[in-house]
Design goal:
alpha/beta, DNA polymerase, domain 1, 8-stranded mixed beta sheet, 14 helices, 14% strand, globular
Length: 311
């Protein structure tokens, strides 16, 4: 018997993962309403994270429906496996990057898809744990890898890349106004002492760049490094383009982005399919979090949800 999202209790959909981590999935109601149109279909969560969206999707499909959850973070998959145990017969979790989406779907024989979701935000597990090196808060190694098995870290970038390459990174991925000067300051600093921790980098940026509009000056710098370490924009483009053949007619793709660089790629890829008569947009403008959700979960403030349907 199908369980609707309305029937699922808030405690079930938002319960703590562990004593240390809680997870508030962004635009949860909007995602499920836009994505789940066939309760018996196959659904992909390409960025399963801590499983909040996956749990809601599973609560909205029938016993015949299935969900495949992918993530490049093995720690997140372990926690999510525990969370989704009640749905064991309807869900599979795999350690994979959505840049390899086609290979993963072929290997798992999981297609054609009724829907696919990509939540491009950093998960609470990554952002709130100093040891992962994503956050300005607390001291941790300058890491920022979503997949701990990847070779490139933020420390390698700031300690090894030439000034010209750093400046381009800060400008293109972080939209840092003083990108060239900041790159020069980074090189000068590392010649005296290599960067090792998030605090090392944060303190340099604080000392050199002014705070603008209440936003910490290192926020954009950390974002640029995270994007580069995880090849986020390249992987997003590759994942979205490789997904389309695996959608069934009427299949939908929902993407939650959190900054203009991501949203620009999503908009461009979606519009390309629309222009060629292969898809339609579910809404002409991206969906945003309500004021109530933003008050409850400030991280949802910058979230944009775009949804496309294959014709």
């Amino acid at each position: 018997m199908m369980t609707t999202l309305a029937a699922a209790t808030p405690s079930r959909l938002h319960r703590p993962m562990t004593r240390e981590y809680t997870h508030e999935p962004v635009l949860l109601k909007e995602v499920v309403e836009a994505l789940v149109w066939d309760p018996s279909g196959l659904y992909l969560d390409g960025t399963v994270g801590l499983g909040g969206h996956s749990e809601a999707i599973l609560a909205s499909i029938s016993a015949q429906g299935k969900l495949l959850g992918m993530d490049m973070d093995p720690e997140a998959l372990e926690l999510t496996g525990t969370r989704l145990k009640p749905h064991t017969g309807n869900v599979r979790l795999v350690h994979a990057n959505f840049r390899d989406l086609g290979q993963t779907l072929e290997r798992e024989k999981f297609f054609p898809l009724a829907g696919a979701l990509f939540d491009l935000g950093v998960s609470s597990l990554q952002f709130d744990k100093p040891a992962r090196g994503f956050s300005l808060q607390g001291e941790g190694p300058l890491d920022m890898r979503m997949d701990p098995g990847s070779p490139l870290t933020a420390a390698r970038i700031v300690n090894e890349w030439p000034a010209e390459q750093l400046a381009l990174l800060f400008k293109e991925f972080g939209e840092v106004p003083e990108a060239v000067r900041l790159a020069r300051w980074v090189v000068e600093h590392r010649e005296k002492k290599p960067f090792e921790t998030t605090t090392d980098l944060r303190r340099l940026v604080e000392a050199k760049l002014p705070r603008r509009g209440g936003i910490h000056p290192a926020t954009q710098v950390f974002m640029a490094l995270r994007i580069a370490v995880n090849r986020e924009l390249e992987n997003l483009t590759r994942g979205l383009e490789s997904l389309f053949p695996y959608l069934r007619q009427g299949g939908r793709v929902a993407v939650i982005s959190f900054h203009s660089l991501e949203d620009r790629i999503v908009k461009h890829v979606f519009q390309s399919y629309v222009t060629h008569g292969q898809a339609r947009l579910i809404a002409s403008a991206p969906l945003r979090a309500s004021s109530q959700e933003v008050a409850r979960n400030p991280r949802s403030r910058s979230a944009k949800l775009r949804v496309m349907e294959k014709l």
